Amino acid sequence: MRQMLAVVGVLGLVCVAGCGADEGPAVTAPSPASSSAPPVTPSEPAGAYAPPSPVRSVPVVRATPALTLAAAGQKYLAITRPYNVALESFEKAANENMSLSTLQNRAKAVAAMNLAEYTALRSTVWPAKVSTQMRALAKADAASRPHWLQVAASDSKTEMADHLEFAMTAGSKAPSAQVRQLLGLPKYDEKDYS
């Protein structure tokens, strides 16, 4: 009888525990201590299917073609116009002895247009004939911009004049004259921008 009770007890435990080969793994609630640990996911067995990766024999390069000389001339004029207008506006205000605050605001506009010109010059693919001069012009823009910001921040017209001299020296006009010549554009005329 004791053997019978023992067999029935073992069978009862097996049924309650749910040990069955075809039922899959037992699901249990996570314990509070393990809830902060990242979940463990089973790894794929070695040799599992993975889609083939594409193989290219030649890399794909998408280069923007350089502008034609005629298109480069039009693009150059469009890019440089706002900066030239701002420069002429500042010069006119200075020549008319306008207030310090007016000159400061115009100098801020010059600095902003300087940055816009620099960015546009650097992001355009220029013809080889003028690419060196365009880089030089962008470099001159970058060199003069800090001085224009100092002109805008000046507390007096005297201080402004000192910084203005540095801005004009740093922002050499030589690359611009060369670009105009190489692209067959007319020489710079301030009347076109005032």
Automatic annotation (TrEMBL):
Signal peptide location: 1-21
Annotated region (Disordered), positions in chain: 26-54
Superkingdom of origin organism: Bacteria
Ranges of compositional bias, category Low complexity: 26-46
Keywords attached to this entry: Signal
Name this protein carries in UniProt: Lipoprotein
